[in-house]
Design goal:
elongated; 9 strands; EC 6.1.1.11; Ser-tRNA-ligase_type_1; alpha+beta; BirA Bifunctional Protein, domain 2; about 30% strand; five-stranded antiparallel beta sheet
Length: about 150
């Protein structure tokens, strides 16, 4: 996700950051994942980020939380570099603020789903919101299904 805001009070970009993280929280909650929200300290921020929030999901095999998504308020760092400006209501030309977020990092999210929804027999329960896309509720044997669906290369 990417957004551009005005820079009248500085709160516009923080508000958009909150909106993006709200979308991320809803996505991971709907999938039934156990996750936590990390406000990243200044020492963990890259050059562009003024404020960064990571979403980390529980990975049972590692007994650790792993990042599945993040969102950053970059204020005017990116807009200064590419020249994105706007005319403020006072007539002043200002640099916009930018906000970036990964809705979800697909490979990490797939690992998290397989880790958290795998049964003892190796099958994987598909989270309810994804069942209509997968057209099934359970992957009986994920590795066997993959092997049978691919043809050997000559």
């Amino acid at each position: 996700m990417f957004g551009i805001t005005s820079n009248e009070s500085g709160e516009e970009s923080e508000s958009l950051l909150e909106e993006f993280t709200s979308i991320q929280k809803e996505l991971f909650t709907d999938l039934g994942l156990h996750f936590k929200i990390q406000e990243m300290p200044p020492t963990e921020l890259g050059l562009p980020a003024y404020h960064k929030i990571d979403m980390e999901a529980w990975i049972p095999t590692t007994k650790l939380y792993g990042e599945i998504s993040s969102a950053s308020n970059c204020t005017d760092y990116q807009s200064r570099r590419i020249g994105i400006k706007y005319n403020s209501p006072s007539g002043e030309t200002k640099f916009c603020h930018t906000v970036n977020a990964t809705a979800c990092a697909i490979p990490r999210l797939l690992i998290t789903i397989f880790e958290n929804f795998q049964n003892l027999d190796g099958s994987v329960n598909i989270p309810k919101p994804l069942q209509k896309y997968m057209k099934k509720e359970v992957i009986k044997d994920a590795f066997k299904e993959k092997m049978m669906s691919t043809k050997p290369t000559p």
